[in-house]
Amino acid sequence: MARRPRQAYGGEIYHAINRGNCRMRIFTKAGDYLAFLKLLEEGRQRTGMRILAYCLMPNHWHLVLWPAKADDLSAFIGWVCSTHVRRWREHRDNVGEGHLYQGRFKSFPVQQGPPLYRVLSYVEGNARRAKRVEQAQAWRYGSLYTGERQAEQQVQLTPWPVPRPGDWTAQVNRGIAEAELNRLRLHILRGRPFGSAAWTDQAARRMGLESSLRDRGRPRKKQDKQ
């Protein structure tokens, strides 16, 4: 049976991430962060992308996106990344000097309900886990930031498709258990749908992501017959 091509389906929610090449810093000063936030808003206006959450870190960024149509995810992130690389290089006068990003962005679909809350908490709590701030809402370059924003920091967020808990900020600051963090990191690495076991299997089949469910590694060697 021919393998179905991997694609983004409208209506699904995705966690997306990209990192600097060799984990290099892509944001080195406040202006770098602000320029990327402005870029996110430009991309949102161009494509109609629904942005639920984000967090920019020195050498990578996280986005939680809710594309309306099948091709919106790649179109939005492709435009954001290519435009970011071009502007980043123009600002530094180093056009053509190696790669900024390590490669194509990574993403995985997320089930609505408790799995989505965990992903949102994972993203908005990123700076706190990295000890950049004591409280997640103090990180200026994340969607949980509660301070006053300058005009260039304004990224229009879409209301979540699940109710936002009244104590959400406190939940984010309580953090995520190490086992759950490891699980999320595995889903990032594999591009594996994140949700209940039944939903994950169904989503993987529907979206052509069956290979993300298989453990990677070298196959076991067959023992020689004695």
Structure characterization notes:
The chain has 226 residues and is of the alpha+beta class. It has a single domain (13-196), classed as 2-Layer Sandwich (Alpha-Beta Plaits). Helix content is 38%, strand content 12%. The chain has helices at residues 30-47, 72-92, 114-124, 126-129, 168-174, 178-190, 197-207; strands at residues 13-19, 50-57, 60-66, 106-110. The protein has a four-stranded antiparallel beta sheet with strand order 2-3-1-4, with helices on one face. α1 (30-47) runs antiparallel to α2. It starts with 12 loop residues before the first strand and ends in a 19-residue tail after the last helix.
Compressed to H and E, one letter per element, the order equals EHEEHEHHHHH
Give me the CATH superfamily: Transposase IS200-like
Measured as a percent range, the helix fraction is: 25-40%
Label the CATH architecture.
2-Layer Sandwich
Shape: globular
How is the main sheet built? 4 strands, antiparallel
User: What's the number of domains?
Assistant: 1
Mean pLDDT value: 86
Number of helices: 7
Number of strands: 4
